[in-house]
Queue: 3 jobs
Job 1
Amino acid sequence: PAADAFAFFGHTNIFLMIGVFIFVGVMIQQGFAKRIALWLLSRKFASKSSASLMTMYIVAMAIISAFMSNIPATMLFLMIAKGICEAIGVDETHPYSKALKFSAAYGSQAGGLATPIGAPNTNFLAMGLMLSLCGCNVRFADWMAVGAPFAVIICVISILYFRRIFKSDLGNMEAARQYAQNEYDKLGPLRKGEKISVFLVFLAIVLWIVPSIISAIIGDAHPAVAVMDRVLNASIVSIFVAILAFLIPLDWKKRKFSTTWGEAAGNVNWGVLILVSCGFLLGGAMNAEGVKLIGWFAKKISGVLGDAPGILVILGFTVLAMVITQFISNVPAISIITTMSVPVAIATNLNPVALAFAIAMAAQMSYILPVAAPQMAIAYGSGGLKLTEFARVGILQCIFSIPIIVFFVYYWANFLFPMGSFVMPA
């Protein structure tokens, strides 16, 4: 029915994303993200060698991308990379220039996995599907417990991988560090707007993780946990902090506030909201009464799999998600494959929540083609990278990621969210 279909456009996670876009947008507007990036790149460690600078560059990219959208984060670091290359005297076709461009895209991808707000379109969609399909309420800290370690592993792999394939021993790294230091100095002292933006993000994160902390102390079964989940619901916290952004003044005499509706509306990616809503809609439609496409698929696939080891099922869904996401947006990929995987997981005695985590991570390994993810397209569009080069680097990164997702993400999520800790919807 139309009423049920359009109800997905009012899903609580949609309002969660609207709030995130608004208050994280304040941090971007005020320039705090750029300040942190330049500060990290101006550390003395970065000037030790070209490898040290690239390591710091990827780490800085991942940290920033964990708390802001991948697209502006990638654009910011590509601009910084251009300045670094000019400072050390290399052009866009130089291996080191290519290494920094790949580092921006791959570091952004890794950072986006660490927290729900790092890649809100995919992460919040996955969290919503886990709740609606599995009855598992994955909180902010719960996602980080799986996503942050995985992001660290992906960062380490990227650093070691790029140091191997982009061998470039440049001797004038001090010039690059000095460039970052000069750009940092131009920003001047920390402004009021930057302090407010940090306060807003920090407040949201604290309020998001309070229910998880209380749950860890007194146990999920305690009535206070249910109360905290209702009062400090992620969507409520997100909208509350977004409202604060409109109310906290930058200059009371001029009646200038942290953000305006025009700025906030510009920061909200309305296209992504519609896309994620359609992802929820697609998942719901495939399992709707009278359709039961997923149930039919589960019976068919269970018959094919028979007594196949669970590890092969996990591997199959991981590879499927990773392949599909190279050609289509990861939002429909996560929606379709996660919805398909839940009944299959139950039929094969696997943990559906852990499998959903593995699929969510695999669907974000969009490395092979520039069209696979916006940050990849931005890096490719900046010039100096060949399509064949892009594919060659990306294929190996995907291959490296598969065993980590299968053996770490699934089994670690299975440990954190064991069967019995959530109640499957009827």
Job 2
Amino acid sequence: MKEYIYRFADGTKSVVEVSDELYAFLKEEDKKEKFGNRRETRRHVSLDELRENGIELPVYDEYDYGEVLARLQNAELSEAVEKLDTEQKKLLYAVFYKRKKIKEIAEEQKVSAQIVSWRLRTTLVQLAVKR
């Protein structure tokens, strides 16, 4: 028999004697709960939960750059694109004209998808600034 400390939801504690098997099971469940909660609170926060608390985060989709580009007139957009590097122009062409996925472009360039995504975001920010 071992002593197990049971913690109630209101914060109070109670010491209970349990069998060795039950003790091992309860400790394992405590461990799962502890690490499960840590994982969820550390990195994976629900967007719905944030919205309920009044926090709105911008969510980006790989083809959802319409807001940045919609504010530019065609002449302004052409002028801003002309100021970009050749590599940036190629990236815009691949994403918006050929409709390639970021993963495909990354495989072609032999880099990670995160790098291509970062380059695309940087290019779009430059477009918005250069107008």
Job 3
Amino acid sequence: SIEKGLEYMNKACEANSGVACYKLSVMYEKGQDAKKFKDKIIHSLEKACTLDYAEGCNSLGYRYGNAQGVRKSFKKAFEYYEKSAALGNATALLNLSILYGEGNGVTRSLTKASEFAEQSCLAGNAQGCYRIGLDYQKGGGGVLQSYAKAAEFYDKSCAKDDAKGCVNLAILYEQGKGVEQSLKRANELYAQACTDGDGLACNNLGLMYKEGRGIAKSPKIARAYFDKACTLKVGIGCSNLGRLYETGNGAVLLYPRAKALYEQACEMNVAAGCFNLGNLYLTAHGVAKSYKEAFKYLDRGCLLGDASACYSVAIMYSNGNGVRKSLFKTKEMFGRACDLGEEKGCERYAKMTNK
């Protein structure tokens, strides 16, 4: 029975078994009224940590960092993580990396953050591998930028079944950064991560099928992957799925479905979703043509960083469609489109500047 289990663990903890003290805290935590036993949970973890049981120290650190049963204190969280890490706990090493990266409970140090992430990885923590992989991919923090090193650590992360590591490794293979380009390998990794529930992987694999990159082109299969990505709350997947319904490519031409998907994506702050929704109102695809509604969504898409949306907004300011005509705003939006990589925006901005 639960009562006998608690009695046994309590006696073992009193006999100075660190693992028993930790397990006792877990049993209290899983009980029907964990709040009632919060003091006993903390006491058991404190004793486990005093007895040098690493997971007890790490759990205490987590509780202080997240105000679970104790008053929030990043300083105390750091102290307990530090002891746990010294005892060889890989998760504690990762938690130290996070605290150093954010400057919580300790002076911020990106160098230390990277060092502890790498130590966590080498101690067997998949998220530590992913985190140091990110550091190497981006550079400018605690390590020098290196796609090759990023690929190395993403590979370790992926090998430990961390879907995010598999996705980032797939992107490197797709782009040929740090590794020899292999669309076949990229697709294998996307498929693995998608199966593990990573929505971005599902979306990216959908794009590969849609475009026939490294795999037989199939808009129908692409639709299935976009649908899974959207179900997993990845907004760009919803937008891409909507595009198939709007064009009838791999799906039945269905404007209302496209509109609903674009709305979902735009609500999730996906720039392409807002742009596509705005275009529906410009082209009157399944909705009454409305410059006002078109401008609302295109402007939002522009603010979210979509170059084409900014270019469209510039044209609307130029023509006074859905918004008061303004040469100043026209030039500003052409400039923003240019900054985001829209060549036509650069050309129009240059023409207005040279007048």
